[in-house]
């Protein structure tokens, strides 16, 4: 059974940092790409960051570019999202996803999803 489990969320003040992790089990994900998405209350889920299977390519939403960094450790079947200079508007449930999307920002092209972890940024 494939499982993706996020961790690392929590409450942080504006300007602070958090590091999210997403550990996968049940199969190897070394040939899959990873994505992070988020959903704020009352809003649609949106793309945050992407990393290719080889980690050679990354892509970020404009809203997080320069503040967030996605990385992966294939040996640990884990993807990370380092979030710095957090803003109140970053408050959301963050989800990791894995798959082989043709359009990296399209959530419907990812096959596996975690359950989400809450990130709350206070002003």
What does this structure look like?
The protein has 123 residues and is mainly beta. It contains no helices and 11 strands. It has strands spanning 3-7, 10-13, 18-25, 33-39, 46-51, 58-60, 68-73, 78-83, 92-99, 110-113, 117-122. Strands 2, 4, 5, 6, 9, 10 and 11 form a 7-stranded mixed β-sheet that branches. A 4-stranded antiparallel β-sheet has the order 1-3-8-7, with no helix packed on it. It starts with a strand and ends with a strand. The mean pLDDT is 95.
Helix content: under 10%
Overall mean confidence score, pLDDT: 95
Major sheet size, sense and barrel closure: 7 strands, mixed
The beta-strand count equals 11
User: What's the number of helices?
Assistant: 0
Please write the string of helix (H) and strand (E) elements: EEEEEEEEEEE
Distance between the termini: 40 Å
Structural class comes to mainly beta
Characterize the overall form: globular
Q: In what range is the share of β-strand residues?
A: over 45%
**Which stretches of 5+ consecutive residues score pLDDT under 50?**
none
Radius of gyration: 13 Å
SSE order and pairing:
Elements (H helix, E strand, L loop, with lengths): L2 E5 L2 E4 L4 E8 L7 E7 L6 E6 L6 E3 L7 E6 L4 E6 L8 E8 L10 E4 L3 E6 L1
Parallel strand pairs: 2-11
Antiparallel strand pairs: 1-3, 3-8, 4-5, 4-9, 5-6, 7-8, 9-10, 9-11
């Amino acid at each position: 059974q494939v499982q993706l489990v996020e961790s690392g969320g929590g409450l942080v003040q504006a300007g602070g940092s958090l590091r999210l992790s997403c550990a996968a089990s049940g199969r190897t994900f070394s040939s899959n790409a990873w994505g992070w998405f988020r959903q704020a209350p009352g809003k649609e889920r949106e793309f945050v960051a992407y990393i290719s299977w080889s980690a050679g390519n990354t892509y970020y939403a404009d809203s997080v570019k320069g503040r967030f960094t996605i990385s992966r450790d294939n040996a640990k079947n884990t993807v990370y999202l380092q979030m710095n200079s957090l803003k109140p508007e970053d408050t959301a449930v963050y989800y990791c996803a894995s798959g082989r999307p043709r359009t990296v920002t399209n959530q419907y092209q990812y096959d596996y999803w975690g359950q989400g972890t809450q990130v709350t940024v206070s002003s």
